[in-house]
Predict the 3D structure of the following.
Amino acid sequence: MVSAVLNEQLRIMPPVVVIPKQVSKTQDQVIVIDGKNVTFPAGAHLSLNVVGTHRNPKYWPSQPSNVTDEAHDLNDFRPERWLIKPGPIGTHGGAMYSEKEEEDFGGYTGQDTSAQLFRPTRGSYLPFSDGPRSCVGRRLAQIKVVAVLSVIFQSYSLELAVDEWATDDEVAKMGNMQRKKLYKVAQEKARKTIRSATTQITLGLHEGAGFIPVRLVPKGEERFLSIVE
């Protein structure tokens, strides 16, 4: 589950939102897209839209959103989408490449995610880019983040801070309906802050406060997690 949380965070908020590429200056490049040959002229500059790729319903399992009225939840943070059983190759349950396929350019080898997690179609998940120029620190980053999250969340849960609207004493006196209403205000502000993010190559919250306040709460002392959607 910790790995699913990390993967989903990188899917919905990738650190690099556009990956620049350039065709060789000496010859055209032919790429097959949806069964059609597409020719890119020599020297052409391309930009891979990572945010759009990570939300393409062709490659990602989804269900109707619980947050919006959309028919899919690809804009929502839902780690559970990674916790599905592998299916036939080429479907939402499997990868488009062999389980034994290894890259031969000196990078990582073997599977990129746990065998118990959903494996995206090659090229549809690019938080660390892909191919011979992908991030060389990918595996180390994944291991370190999962280890840190595992240690923290053994003892703590994470919830949005509501200090702007109510004190701890006031929250303690509230019923579930009041807390749910209060937390919805914090959720809406968090979503508005995220929507204000702008991009250059990396994604940043540059406007307003530029951050979303959260707090670590000891296990068993959560005030909102059990009553919000």
In short: DSSP finds five helices and eight strands in the chain.
